[in-house]
Amino acid sequence: MQYTLNKTICQHVRMVAVQRPFFAGPPVFTIGSGLSRSNPTQPTGFPLGIDNKKPRVWMSLSYQVRMDDEQCYLAVHSSYCGIFAEADLSTCLCHFDFEREKEHYAGAHLQVHGSSPALDKLNRGHDVGRTLDKLHFPVGGKRFRPSLEDVIEFLVSERLVDAREGWEQVVEDGRDQFQRQQLKAAMRRNTAVVQAWVRDHGQAMVRE
Q1: Which superkingdom, per the lineage (predicted)?
Q2: Which of 23, 139, 148, 197 is 20 to 30 A from 128, comparing alpha carbons?
Q3: Using the 8-state DSSP alphabet, how is residue 52 labeled?
Q4: Pairing, β 15-19 against β 137-138
Q5: pLDDT of 112-156, one tens digit each?
């Protein structure tokens, strides 16, 4: 994450991992900016910029990771990536969230801050007055949720931030690595599907 950010839309960002204290169960680590032993759970925001100009955009980025149920692989338990227009993170544009064990709405989701006349008309009953940022837009599910590289591409493509020369390759390489990891995880959880695919296509692969 640190490499990807500093090679694309940031400079001098430092991401660290700190074990979550006083947690009953397997160790959980929080990854983010500004963490330390005295501040193990509350990452700080950081500016998005590649020069010394006054930054216009800030990001708040954090991950909680722990071993999976089989104690074989490190898995993301939750993540948060928020985009803000103020250094104190008081004015939010949107945030991309992942909560592995969420039940009442999509675990991988996007929340957008703003007004919506359509939502004002659609709200009814107890939802009257509900604002746009309270909606959880699903984005790809547990396996194929947006990566940090997708967020960077969004920020650059929509002209919200400037990027370093060569940022496209950094994003593409990182996204490819993320998608490969997610595909392997999906294969581990769906071995019957993998076996069926190999049975149906294995001979063709050998001939190729």
Answers
A1: Bacteria
A2: 139
A3: S
A4: unpaired
A5: 999 999 999 999 999 999 999 999 999 998 888 999 999 999 999
Q: Count other Cβ atoms within 10 Å, centred on residue 54.
A: 8
Q: Using CA atoms, how far apart are residues 139 and 42, in angstroms rounded to an integer?
A: 25
What is the rounded distance in angstroms from the CA atom of residue 66 to the CA atom of residue 72? 10
Residues 10-57 have pLDDT tens digits of: 999 999 999 988 767 778 999 999 999 899 889 999 999 999 999 999
Say how many residues make up the chain. 208
Distance (Å, whole) CA 121 – CA 169? 43
CA 139 vs. chain centroid, Å, equals 11
Q: What type of residue is 166?
A: G
Measured CA to CA, the distance from residue 156 to residue 113 in angstroms comes to 19
Q: Give the closest residue to 79 by CA, choosing from 104, 59, 56, 62.
A: 62
d(CA 182, CA 188): 10
Strands 74-84 and 137-138: unpaired
Query: What's the whole-model pTM score?
Result: 0.90
Burial class (CB in 10 A: 0-12, 13-18, 19+), 77: middle
List helix spans (H) across 36-82: none
